[in-house]
TrEMBL record:
GO molecular function terms noted in the UniProt entry: RNA binding; RNA methyltransferase activity
Record protein name field: RNA methyltransferase
Keywords: Methyltransferase, RNA-binding, S-adenosyl-L-methionine, Transferase
InterPro entries given in the database record: MeTrfase_RsmB-F_NOP2_cat, MeTrfase_RsmB-F_NOP2_dom, RCMT, RsmB-like_ferredoxin, SAM-dependent_MTases_sf
Active site (UniProt): 354 (nucleophile)
Positions of the SAM-dependent MTase RsmB/NOP-type domain: 142-403
Record has Ribosomal protein as a keyword: no
Pfam families cross-referenced by the UniProt entry: Methyltr_RsmB-F, RsmF-B_ferredox
Record organism: Nonlabens agnitus
Residue positions binding S-adenosyl-L-methionine: 256, 283, 301
Amino acid sequence: MRFHHNLLQATVDALHNIFNDGKYADQAIQRILKRDTRWGSRDRGFIAETTYDIVRYKRLYAAIANVKEPFKPADLWRMTAVWIVLKGHDVPAWEEYYNTPVRRIKGKFDELSAITKYRESIPDWMDEMGKEELGEELWNKEISALNQQADVVLRANTLQTDVKTLQEKLLALEIATTTDERFPDALILKERANVFQTELFQNGLFEVQDAGSQTIAPFAQVEPGMRVMDSCAGAGGKSLHLAALMENKGQIISTDIYNGKLNELKRRARRAGAHNIETRLIDSTKVIKKLDGKMDRLVIDAPCSGLGVLRRNPDAKWKLEPEFLDNIRKTQQEILQSYSRVVKPEGMMVYATCSILPSENDKQVETFLNSESGADFELLDSQSLMAHKDGFDGFYMALMKKKK
Ligand SMILES: C[S@@+](CC[C@H](N)C(=O)[O-])C[C@H]1O[C@@H](n2cnc3c(N)ncnc32)[C@H](O)[C@@H]1O
C-alpha cells in the first residue's frame, strides 16, 4: 500500500484533537476532512478509518509505541507507525518514521495481545466491571466484537417506500445492500458510502439506524391509532420508527429533557413525513402527571453507558467513568419509576438500553418490578442483542404489561 504524507498528517492532527483536546472522534474527523477539498472518497475514508482504528486501540498502540498521554506529535506519529506495521504494510521512508523498530513492534504486539485490557484497549476498571457483570468468557467475546468496525445499516421508511423498492433505488446509485430477515426494514450496505448525500435520504426514504436499534419499536407491539409515549426520545430514532409502524395514525408524544434534541426530532419527522408526533420538553413533573394512565404504550429508550454501541463511538471507552455509570443507573431507575405511571391498565411499556451490562438492563427491570410502582406490571418478554452473537450493536429490551 502506498501512503500519502498529508493523509497521515491529517490523521495525526485528528488524533491530537481527540486524545489531547477531548474532542468527540466523529466531530474531530468531520472537521479535519474539511481541510482539503481535493481529497476524494478514498482519501477521506483512509483518514476516518485510520483515526477510528487508532482510537479503538489507543491503549495497545500507545503501549507498543512506548508513549504516554498527553501525546506529543512525535508520539502520535509513532502510533501511526505501529498501525502500519500491524496492518502488514511497509513503513514509508519518511522522517517521522525514521528507525521504526518493526520487529520490536511485532514482538510487543504478541506479548500484549495475551492481556484483555491491552488487546481490546480498555481501561482497567472497565475490564474488571465487564468480567464481573458478564463473566470472563462472554465479556472477552463481546468486547472483541465491539472493537470491530460497524456496518452501515439503513431503515427503510415505510411511510414513503418499502425495503425492496429502496434497495433497487440505491442500487441505481451503485449502493449495493443486503437484507436480513431478522430485521424486516433494514438494508445493510455492502460497502461504506455517504448515504446522507443522496436525494433518497433528503426525501426521507430512509434513516441510518443500526439493526439492533430497529428491534426496539416493533418490540412495543404498537398499532395504528394508539396513544404512545416515547419518553427519552432524543433526536427521535425510535419515534420515527414508531410513526412508520403506526402508519401515521394515532398519537406519539415524544419527550426529552433537551429542547435541542426535540428540535432535531421535529426536523427529521418533517423529512420522514411522520405527522403524528408531538414533542414535549420535560421541564417539570407536571408534563408526566398530565398523562397519568393515558398511554397504550410507553417506550423508555433510557440514557445508558452506551457500551453496546462502542463500535460506533470507540472514544467512549476513554470518556466513560465509573462515577458516570453509578449516576446513570440511578437515573434509569428514576425514569422507570416516574414514567411508568403514564401506562394505562392493560397497556404495555418497553424499557430499552444500548448497553450490554445486566446492571443497566434486567437488574433494573427486576428492581422496578419489585418496587411499589412496578407491582402493577408483569414482565412479558425480554431480549438481549450482542455484537458477537447477532453481528450488530448491543441492545437490551424488556416488555412489561400493566395489570387491569
Ligand atoms: C438513548 S438516548 C435516546 C435516543 C433516542 N431515543 C433515539 O432513538 O434517537 C436517551 C435520551 O434520554 C434523554 N433523557 C435523559 N434523562 C431523561 C429524563 N429524565 N426524561 C426524559 N429524557 C431523558 C437524553 O437526553 C437522551 O436524549
